[in-house]
Structure formats: C-alpha cells, structure tokens
Amino acid sequence: MIERFNGPYLKHNGDWDETLPIGQVVAEEQDGRLHCVIYSCPCGCGDLQAINTQGSHLPKSWDGSFDDQNRLTLSPSVNRTSACLSHYFITNGVVQWC
Q1: Listed range (3-12, 19-28, 53-62, 68-77) with the worst mean pLDDT
Q2: Which of 14, 32, 34, 70 has the most CB atoms at less than 10 Å from its CB?
Q3: For the residues 33-51, what does the mean pLDDT come to?
Q4: What pLDDT does 9 receive?
Q5: Which long-range contacts (CB under 8 A, 24 or more apart) does 46-50 make?
Q6: What pLDDT digit, counting tens, does each position of 1-34 carry?
Q7: What number of other Cβ atoms are within 10 A of residue 28's Cβ?
Q8: Are 8 and 29 in contact (CB under 8 A)?
Q9: How far is 77 from 33, CA to CA, in rounded Å?
Q10: Residue 42, by phi and psi: left (phi above 0), alpha (psi -120 to 50) or beta?
C-alpha cells in the first residue's frame, strides 16, 4: 500500500508502455487540458486505474489537477466496485483511505 504519489509523468499522445511503478502517474493532456490520469492502484494489487478527468464524458468523470509541486488531486473519491474494492481520495499527492 502506498501513501503518496510522485509527480506526474506527462504524455501528450497517449503512447506509453503500460507499465507503471506504483506511485507514478501518467497524465494525458489534449489541447492543454487534463484528459485522463493513469496510475497503479495504491493498494498494491497492480491494477492500472484510468481516471477520466473530462467533465463532458459519461458515465463518470473526476476533477483532476496538479499543484505547483506536481502533486495530484482527484475529486470525488475513487471507489473501486470490483477487484480489490479500494476506496480512497488523492489530495496533493497523498492517499487518504476511506
């Protein structure tokens, strides 16, 4: 289990090797706007989480941002309803378990 995410590794074209060390974040941008963040589940199960941060897309999207120190914040919480069933917030790069 991790308690903190490292700063983002930005990719603009969505082309990456699909292996992420735990705590590393891939942030995809389109037209200068955050499109999606991808990271390994902080519980340690190894599943990749792709979080939609485009408010106009259904079924669900999150508000995602990085502060001036490149720390990720997601809102609302991420509540996995399958696999490991983790439920957590990420605020300023810190995982807050529910």
Answers
A1: 3-12
A2: 34
A3: 88
A4: 62
A5: 47/83, 47/84, 48/18, 48/20, 49/78, 49/80
A6: 667 776 666 554 555 566 677 778 888 877 778 8
A7: 19
A8: no
A9: 21
A10: alpha
